[in-house]
Each structure stands twice: as C-alpha cells, then as structure tokens.
C-alpha cells in the first residue's frame, strides 16, 4: 500500500472536540495534523464533497475477534487470517484505535472461542510485525475474577507493551450483569448452541463454588498486578453501592456497563468514566435486561460508548445520540467515542481533530438515520 502521510483534505464538515466547522479543511504533514481552518485551505487538496470528517474512533471493549476465529459453532478459522479480516471490519467501522478484548478465563464451555488470550495476542502481534494491519491495536485483558488460574494467566500476559487495560469481571449467576439468573440461562442457551437444563444446572453450581473459592483472593491479586504494571483498571457490570465503593478504592479508570442507574451516576460523580454499550443505544435497551444507555445519557452520566459485539454500532450510536438526548450535541457525542476513551487509557496523541494530534481521520457520509464510512486514515496513511 502506498504511503500518503502529507496531504490536504477540504470541503468537509469538521467535528472538532468542542465545536463544528461547517466547511473546512485539514492539512496533514508526516501523519500529524498540521493545520485546521475554515474555507478552502492551502494548495490543491482532496475535495470531500461536504461529508463529515471525524476523528478516528477509539474502541476500548470489543470481543468481536472471537466471531472471526469461530465463524460457526465449533468451527475454528486460522487465527492470523481471522485477525486480518477482523482488523478490516474494525477499520471500515471507523475505528482507528482498538483494544482487542481478550478473555482471561479458563471456561467450562468447550465450544467457546474465548479463553485463548495468549494465542490471540500472539496472532495480533504477528499481524502487526508483518504489516498486515490497517489500524492501531492494543490489548484489553478481560479477567474473570472467580476462576482458577486467572491471576497467573494475567501475570503471564500483562508485561506485553500493548496491554492498555485490565477489567475485573464476575459473571457468577446472581451477580452483576446476571443478577437475574434466568437471563444468564437464556444467554447460554442461545450462545452455546443449546445446553440442556441439567448441563446449565451443573455449570451454575460450579460457578457458585468458584465464586466462593476464588473471588476475594483473585480480586486482590489482579488489582495488585495492574498497579505494579501501571495498567489502567476497568470495573465491569457494577450494580451495588459496594461495587461503586470498590471501584473508587481501587482507582478504577472506567466502569464498563454499570447495570443500575444508581451505580452509574455514583461512578460518574466520583470521576470514573462510565462506559455503556452502543448496541444498547441503537437497539433502545439492554439485552441483559439492565439499564438503557439512552436513559443514562439523559442524566449526563454517559462518558464513553463501546461497540461491544457490533463494530459498526459505535459510529451509528454516536451520530444518533444528539437526536435522542438533548444534552449531547454532535461534538459531545463524538467525544464519547474518541477523545474520552483515548484519555482513559493515556493515549493523549489522538482522539480529536486538533493540531499536533495523529492524523487518525474518518470520512462519513450520512443519509437520514444511516451512515457509511467512506475513507479512513490511520496516522495519515489511507487504510480504507
Ligand atoms: Fe458482563
């Protein structure tokens, strides 16, 4: 692919971090934004036809690689090939920085494509070293606290330089996301190709035993590990006042998918960034029966959106947010998918269209409620 790291684009609606320029230009030099302005701008430049120019989106939590590794139940694809096709899908969804969220979880469900964090991390690294990737990839280790070996498995991975976030999860029946165990039962029935009630009973019993045996010790071990490696921490599915207190005590940077309004607002007021699902906003509610992203946005406590399991939902949700909720204009909505998530993980070189930032840019054409990503630049290189 030819490098094109210095160029000018013009005749676009620019979405800056705090305002819009209805017709402007951006000049890029050596992969960095050198100049922004209104009107036609310097030199020739590519005419963007009045479409929207946004900062490349920053995604902190997507487990979508798993869908490329296991495209059908129990059918596994070559992992490097899966990484390459996943990267292309993420890039054309408008995302230029992604935290590939890898489960550190020795799961009991054999056909599940997670629980191979080291293998996935190696494949991503191989793809990066061989120039097979379009965008910037980092790693988010999703640690299931009440599981055997999670501290050791995390310790083996956390030294990798690409690890940027560590989340503390607990999907025990009756806890957090699945405090209604019937929802967990439905989730596994759909996901695992139909487990019988007897199999689910046995699984749930084991999960409850594991919770009693491992939770307290592993939680402390993981928090210590993150502190030693200066990895930002994420809490996950916070539900109760105790969860909020734990997150504050452990200096959590971002709270993923709080399940109750009380927890979400308390986390936000404590300065912890609150992340909610973009699919939840687009669909109009949570698939687990928890709070709706739109309802939380009305309180102003929504800080970050995540595409979670549908990559294209990130852009779609951010573009729709101002139409659904009065207190977010378009720049504020785009901040939830660019500047704020970048800041959460300490990537201050990107996340907004501003002089001196990386030229991570996406060109978006809107047609009513729908939108398409027309072009993507990563560090000034056109990648889609
Ligand atoms: Fe969860």
Q: Would you mind describing this structure in some detail?
A:
- There is one protein chain.
- The chain has 384 residues and is of the alpha/beta class.
- Helix content is 36%, strand content 25%.
- It has 13 helices and 16 strands.
- Strands 1, 2, 3, 4, 5, 14, 15 and 16 form an eight-stranded mixed β-sheet that branches.
- A hairpin with a 2-residue loop joins β15 and β16.
- α2 packs across α3, α4 packs across α6 and α7 packs parallel to α8.
- The protein is globular and about 70 Å long.
- 48% of the residues are buried.
- The mean pLDDT is 93.
- Bound molecules: fe (ii) ion.
Name some characteristics of this structure.
384 residues, binds fe (ii) ion, 8-stranded mixed beta sheet, 13 helices, 8-stranded parallel beta sheet, globular
Overall mean pLDDT stands at 93
- N-to-C series of helices and strands: EEEEEEHHEHEHEHHEHEHEHHEHHHEEE
Q: Which ligands, by name, code or SMILES, are bound?
A: fe (ii) ion
Beta-strand portion reads: 25-35%
Q: How is the topology of this model organized?
A:
Elements: E1 7-15, E2 20-29, E3 32-38, E4 46-47, E5 52-55, E6 57-62, H1 65-69, H2 79-92, E7 95-104, H3 117-129, E8 136-144, H4 150-157, E9 163-169, H5 181-191, H6 197-228, E10 233-236, H7 241-249, E11 254-256, H8 261-269, E12 273-277, H9 278-283, H10 293-299, E13 304-306, H11 313-324, H12 330-335, H13 339-344, E14 361-367, E15 370-378, E16 381-382
Parallel strand pairs: 1-4, 1-5, 6-7, 7-8, 8-9, 9-10, 10-11, 11-12, 12-13
Antiparallel strand pairs: 1-2, 2-3, 5-14, 14-15, 15-16
Helix pairs in contact: 2-3, 4-6, 7-8
Residues 169, 171, 177, 236-237 line the site of fe (ii) ion.
